[in-house]
Amino acid sequence: MQKKSLLFICTGNSARSQLAEALFRQMAGAEFEVYSAGTAPEPIDPRVFAVLNARHISAENLHSKDLSSLNQRHFDYAITLCDKAHQSCVTQVKAAQILAWDFADPKAKAGTKAFDVVLNELSERIKYFLLFSQKYRVKPEQLSDALSFYKALADDTRLKTLLLIQQQQELCVCELTAALDETQPKISRHLAQLRNAAILQDRRHGQWVFYRLADNLPGWALEVLRLTASNNSALIAANLNKLNEMGDRPQRAALCN
Predict the structure, then answer these.
(1) pLDDT class for 56, splitting at 50, 70, 90?
(2) Is residue 82 among the annotated active site residues?
(3) Which of these is catalytic: 89, 172, 174, 256?
(4) Full-prediction pTM beyond 0.85?
(5) Cβ neighbours for 214, distance < 8 A, ≥ 6 positions apart
(6) Same fold, 4-135 and 142-255
(7) Could you cite one Gene Ontology molecular function of this protein (predicted)?
(8) pLDDT digits (tens, 9 = 90+) for 40-52
(9) d(CA 191, CA 172)
(10) 10 catalytic residue (yes or no)
(11) Per-domain boundaries in the chain
């Protein structure tokens, strides 16, 4: 599997970003190519090497470098470690995703304790980053599923159907017909497409068929729907109002005539 590329950025590239580079390489060097740079680079603080050596973390190849020396590279991730670097580097770095992690500069304090604190905080943040990136990564064998999923979201009716079902957990054809103000044949056709793409699954209760998100829908797909819903609540607000106007919602079967 091709390695992802990641760049840590801080102002001086003399402490925080060097600690992050060495630590991330130890934790996930098999999956990521890891770099660091500074917007105004300075020599590496000797305490960086002391702290890394005490933790048995390799400091091999660590050196301070200017962000401009990497402006021809495109990274999968760029992570800024101070607000100043984030403000000044956004237009300089080429990356698919730019994340902002803000850590206090340990150089301002005497001794190595502040460096140890930053290293511990970086370790926790990197663990969460790796858990998230691995959980929601689309694997090569899932690529066809990903294409089907995003094609489904490209249609207005299907996207709203998925968001409504996610919000309500389960809906039948008549509820979607009322909420979306569409004909039953059209809603049924879209539901069939979503079911064939393994995005929805159905449950028969008496004469009624209810639809919900598929139990085996990948985590990354669920996260896409969650983020879409949380950041675009107005998209289905009117549809939810129409759904609520149907009457006594708990009497689901009685509404589906």
Answers:
(1) very high
(2) yes
(3) 89
(4) no
(5) 198, 199, 200, 201
(6) no
(7) DNA-binding transcription factor activity
(8) 999 999 999 999 9
(9) 10
(10) yes
(11) 4-135, 142-255
The domain 4-135 is classified under which CATH number: 2.40.128.260, 2.30.42.10, 1.10.3720.10, 3.40.50.2300? 3.40.50.2300
Percent of the chain with pLDDT over 70: 88
Structure tokens at 33: 């190519």
Spatial strand order of the sheet with 200-205 comes to: 171-172, 208-213, 200-205
Instruction: Check 82, 172, 174, 256 and give the catalytic one.
Output: 82
- Residue 119 burial by CB count (10 A; 0-12/13-18/19+): exposed, middle or buried? buried
* Fold exhibited by the domain 142-255: Arc Repressor Mutant, subunit A (1.10.10)
**Whole-number Å distance between alpha carbons of 130 and 142:** 19
- CB distance 34 to 3 below 8 Å: no
Whose tokens are 């009716």? That residue is 157
Q: pLDDT value at position 140?
A: 57
